[in-house]
């Protein structure tokens, strides 16, 4: 198999995205005499303990592409990629549950929008303008993914937008009041999912505040391009456009160093031959409380604070050839190989999610960045009144 960068050059991917080209032939029109499915449909998804009802939204475009999202946690519950074989069934490549009850029982952020601050904050404390703030410590001594009741556990307000110019879309809105999980300022957050005519999944997150605060919204899907219930992702190949990664301490807090990936198991650069995930995971074995595998933030090559989309990663299922390219405007990506999945969760269709059953590619500001204020290598998560936080990711698939 040729190198991943030779299969489709990253520069070409970025150029196609910026210009709006899809690189795919137009889909055929709906055959005469058939009734087309709606571009956006809604259906009940379950009832919360307080009696509020959750809704799922399904986005469709011709060709078999389909994304389903719920307003509970602004969670992507499924993403169907069409088969390359005529008459073959689309494949759902996202881990998740069939209904709201599965998510309410507790889960490792399957498909969720996490915030206010995704990833970790050391000791659950930070200072802004000389004032100390204390957050929940829900990951050992540290704060993780927004706290005990983060954005992934809130019911967002959903608005279907079937005529969005980029494709069928649904926008979710959430108000996080001042003091929510210990964070200062009233935050107005949005998360929009769009399915383009080419089958690209576009995730856009924004936020504004009425007082200084910190924000790092993160999309947390677990991907398995062989199908969500197919087993571990060891047979996938992964390339990450990063020359450095962030080493971490025993609590998974970055040490502050930027370490070169060359000569380490974290060398996933696209210039190399494809890196099989099984081999990369095996090179990082379990030790004590560390389950092994990858759970590290990578420094995106050439990132600048200009809001431009840059190539981040390419994931390929070695058996089917199914492929996902990821582009984003963030400086880092957390690569997590499902190390803590243990077979205790039963997902869609009775699938049992075992260790390494999915991989997360979470674009974001660097973890614990608030404790590296003043270091120009660490983009600040601070958000002030009058500013708008923005985070855009594009997932581009080849069946």
Q: What does the secondary structure layout of this molecule look like, with pairings?
A:
Layout: H1 4-7, H2 10-19, E1 40-47, E2 53-61, E3 65-70, E4 75-81, E5 91-92, H3 100-104, E6 112-114, E7 120-121, E8 125-128, E9 131-134, E10 143-144, E11 157-161, E12 169-176, E13 187-195, E14 201-209, E15 213-214, E16 218-220, E17 236-240, E18 242-246, E19 259-260, E20 275-276, H4 277-282, E21 295-300, E22 310-317, E23 323-328, E24 332-336, E25 345-346, E26 352-353, E27 360-364, E28 382-383, E29 389-398
What distance lies between the first and last C-alpha atoms, to the nearest angstrom?
Answer: 17 Å
Number of strands: 29
Helix/strand/pairing category: mainly beta
**Second rung of CATH, namely the architecture:** Distorted Sandwich
Walkthrough of the structure:
By secondary structure, the chain is mainly beta. The protein has a single domain (about 5-20, about 35-399), classed as Distorted Sandwich (Beta-galactosidase, Chain A, domain 5). Helix content is about 5%, strand content about 35%. The chain contains four helices and 29 strands. The chain has helices at about 5, 10-20, 100-105, 275-280, and strands at about 40-45, 55-60, 65-70, 75-80, 90, 110-115, 120, 125-130, 130-135, 145, 155-160, 170-175, 185-195, 200-210, 215, 220, 235-240, 240-245, 260, 275, 295-300, 310-315, 325-330, 330-335, 345, 350-355, 360-365, 380-385, 390-399. A hairpin with a 4-residue loop joins β3 and β4 (about 75-80). The chain starts with a helix and ends with a strand.
Question: Which terms would index this structure?
Answer:
399 residues, mainly beta, Beta-galactosidase, Chain A, domain 5, nine-stranded antiparallel β-sheet, five-stranded antiparallel β-sheet, globular, disordered N terminus
């Amino acid at each position: 198999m040729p190198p991943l960068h030779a299969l489709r050059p990253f520069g070409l991917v970025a150029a196609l995205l910026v210009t709006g080209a899809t690189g795919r032939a137009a889909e055929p029109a709906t055959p005469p005499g058939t009734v087309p499915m709606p571009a956006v449909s809604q259906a009940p998804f379950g009832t919360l303990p307080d009696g509020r009802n959750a809704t799922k939204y399904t986005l469709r475009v011709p060709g078999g592409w389909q994304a389903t999202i719920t307003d509970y946690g602004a969670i992507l519950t499924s993403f169907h990629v069409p088969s390359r074989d005529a008459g073959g069934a689309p494949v759902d490549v996202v881990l998740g549950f069939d209904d709201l009850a599965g998510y309410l029982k507790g889960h490792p952020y399957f498909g969720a929008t996490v915030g206010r601050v995704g990833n970790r904050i050391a000791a659950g404390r930070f200072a802004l303008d000389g004032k100390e703030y204390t957050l929940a410590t829900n990951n050992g001594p540290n704060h993780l993914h927004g706290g005990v009741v983060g954005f992934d556990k809130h019911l967002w307000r959903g608005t279907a937008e079937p005529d969005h110019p980029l494709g069928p879309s649904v926008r979710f809105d959430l108000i996080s009041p001042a003091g929510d999980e210990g964070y200062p300022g009233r935050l107005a957050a949005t998360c929009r999912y769009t399915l383009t005519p080419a089958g690209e999944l576009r995730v856009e997150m924004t936020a504004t505040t009425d007082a200084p605060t910190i924000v790092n919204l993160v999309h947390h899907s677990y991907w398995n391009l062989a199908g969500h219930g197919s087993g571990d992702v060891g047979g996938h190949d992964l390339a990450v456009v990063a020359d450095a990664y962030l080493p971490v301490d025993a609590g998974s807090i970055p040490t502050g160093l930027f370490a070169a990936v060359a000569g380490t198991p974290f060398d996933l650069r696209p210039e190399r031959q494809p890196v099989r995930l099984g081999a990369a995971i095996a090179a990082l074995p379990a030790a004590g409380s560390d389950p092994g595998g990858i759970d590290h933030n990578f420094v995106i090559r050439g990132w600048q604070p200009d809001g431009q989309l840059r190539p981040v990663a390419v994931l390929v299922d070695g058996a089917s050839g199914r492929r996902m390219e990821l582009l984003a405007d963030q400086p880092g990506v957390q690569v997590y190989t499902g190390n803590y999945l243990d077979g205790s969760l039963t997902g869609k269709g009775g699938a049992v999610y075992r260790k390494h059953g999915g991989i997360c590619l979470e674009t974001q500001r660097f973890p614990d960045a608030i404790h590296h204020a003043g270091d120009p290598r660490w983009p600040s998560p601070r958000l002030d009144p009058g500013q708008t936080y923005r985070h855009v990711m594009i997932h581009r698939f080849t069946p």
